[in-house]
Amino acid sequence: MTLKIWKEDDPKASLMERKRALIVQAAREAFLTGGYADTSMDSIAKSAGVSIKTVYRHFENKDDLFIAVMQAACSVESKGKPRDWPTKVPRVGLPLAAIEYLRHALSTEQLALYRVVLRDAGRFPELGRRYSEEVIEGRNALIVDYLNRWSPSQGWKIKDVLGAANAFAGLLRSGWFESVLLGTAAMEERALLQHAKTGAAQILILIESRKL
């Protein structure tokens, strides 16, 4: 079903946007509470206070709605201070990029979404693929762009830029992510900053020694 597009100054456009926001918020609460598999479009419509027809006007299926929830979570976390680390030299920019990565990956919202994906991806493989595309690849793309931007001036000869971005993510996630995900440990701000600094230093060593 194709959603009719209204002009921005049309009152119906504002109404439709509010309804969409209500649906996404209801879906977020439902997915994080009951998981993906056990959440129905009907229950989301009821929680949002809209008809099931309205839900399907905005979202083709549950996959699309889950993507909207992921995008909304990333959008909220990216608001605030503009991202300036891409313009800073690597010894400054990479630690800042690492801090942003860790704060995002270890945020309550992202950990909750990741748990939903882990729980239900076995039954719904598309769920894992969509999460990878929207969240993991999105974060890695920022690092790829950064490495491509600074490689010429730094004299880097990176054979596989995407592989380098994945290696950076792996360094940042190692030693902490699973423990925080399982709730057996928490990363305090001081530890996060130190881990980010260490991960950035390690990836620089690998890049400058041309091992990537």
Attribute tags:
212 residues; Arc Repressor Mutant, subunit A; 10 helices; 73% helix; elongated; DNA-binding transcription factor activity; HTH_TetR; DNA-binding; TetR_C_Proteobacteria; transcription cis-regulatory region binding
Major β-sheet profile: none
Quote the distance from N terminus to C terminus.
47 Å
Succession of helices and strands: HHHHHHHHHH
Helix content: over 70%
Domain HTH tetR-type: 17-77
InterPro entries: Homeodomain-like_sf (IPR009057), HTH-type_TetR-like_transc_reg (IPR050109), HTH_TetR (IPR001647), TetR_C_Proteobacteria (IPR039536)
Protein name: TetR/AcrR family transcriptional repressor of mexJK operon
GO molecular function: DNA-binding transcription factor activity; transcription cis-regulatory region binding
What's the layout of helices and strands?
Elements: H1 11-34, H2 41-48, H3 52-58, H4 62-78, H5 90-105, H6 108-120, H7 125-154, H8 161-173, H9 177-182, H10 189-208
Helix pairs in contact: 1-2, 1-4, 4-7, 5-10, 6-7, 7-8, 8-10
Keywords: DNA-binding, Transcription, Transcription regulation
Protein name: TetR/AcrR family transcriptional repressor of mexJK operon
DNA-binding region: 40-59
